[in-house]
Amino acid sequence: MNRIEVRDLRVAYGDREVLHGVSFDLREKEILAIIGPAQSGKTSILRCLNRTLDFSPDARVSGAITVDGQLLDRHTDVEALRRKVGMVAPLPVGLPLSIYDNVAFAPRCAGISGRAELDATVEQCLRRAVLWDEVKDRLTISGTKLSGGQQQRLTLARALSHRPGILCLDEFSIAIDPVTTMRIEEVLRELRPELSIILVTNLTQQAKRLADRTMFLLKGEIVELADNGVIFSATPGDRRTFDYVNGKFG
């Protein structure tokens, strides 16, 4: 079963088209990595999937996106979509709330008000983000007082609090240390049996470690999308793939 199906997706900002008709699927319970140089259109794909591109007034989108069999169109319940498609941004963005309230915010919006249920949800999400043991005794302090790596894990916990079926991560390790990066990578491996994950990363070795399949995006077009055993082999389907993953450009 495909969780997401994208067909002939085109995105333009004003007169500048950044995605030129890309098509791909996200399968059930897989990690799909998207790699490619800066300005390849990687983030624009993610912003289409949960409709945050709607916030860009000059953006134009065409093509078809289906999430769990539902075509995204002007009738789509965007709030429900964003609960289903969780997003973790490149830089940690904590709400100006306590650690507890950062994670409890979405469940409260969904109608959960019982303290016991909220407590259980907050603890579960913080544990899954490998943050609980570090913050369990100071849940009332502002999330913005945490270190950068802790804030990124708090962002992950907040995304998980929506109980999404699909999780999108946009270069989550760009501003955190290697130890925290490896801890979050382990979390993603543990989440694979429960979620479908799209991982945009500028680290080709991270894609190799984590993903089942990898898409190589270049100048708004898919050069190659294949199992990792092909993408990171000595003979991928396109020479440009070999050159990029081996650091010859990008």
State the CATH superfamily name: P-loop containing nucleotide triphosphate hydrolases
Kindly report how far apart the N and C termini lie: 33 Å
How do the SSEs run, as a string of H and E?
EEEHEEHEHHHHEHEHEEHH
CATH architecture descriptor: 3-Layer(aba) Sandwich
Strand order of the largest sheet: 6-7-8-3-9-10
In the predicted model, the low-confidence regions spanning at least 5 consecutive residues are none
How many E-type strands?
A: 10
Number of helices: 10
Helix content: 25-40%
Largest sheet: 6 strands, mixed
% residues in beta strands: 25-35%
Which CATH class applies here? Answer: Alpha Beta
Describe the structure.
There is one protein chain. This protein has a single domain (2-245), classed as P-loop containing nucleotide triphosphate hydrolases (Rossmann fold, 3-Layer(aba) Sandwich). α3 runs parallel beside α6 (148-160). 36% of the residues lie in helices and 27% in strands. The protein has a six-stranded mixed sheet with strand order 6-7-8-3-9-10, sandwiched between helices. The chain is of the alpha/beta class.
List keywords for this structure.
single chain; 250 residues; alpha/beta; Rossmann fold; six-stranded mixed beta sheet; 27% strand
Record the SSE blueprint.
Elements: E1 2-13, E2 16-27, E3 31-35, H1 42-49, E4 59-67, E5 70-71, H2 78-84, E6 85-88, H3 99-109, H4 115-128, H5 132-135, H6 148-160, E7 166-170, H7 178-191, E8 196-200, H8 204-210, E9 213-218, E10 221-227, H9 228-231, H10 239-245
Parallel strand pairs: 3-8, 3-9, 6-7, 7-8
Antiparallel strand pairs: 1-2, 1-4, 4-5, 9-10
Helix pairs in contact: 3-4, 3-6, 4-6
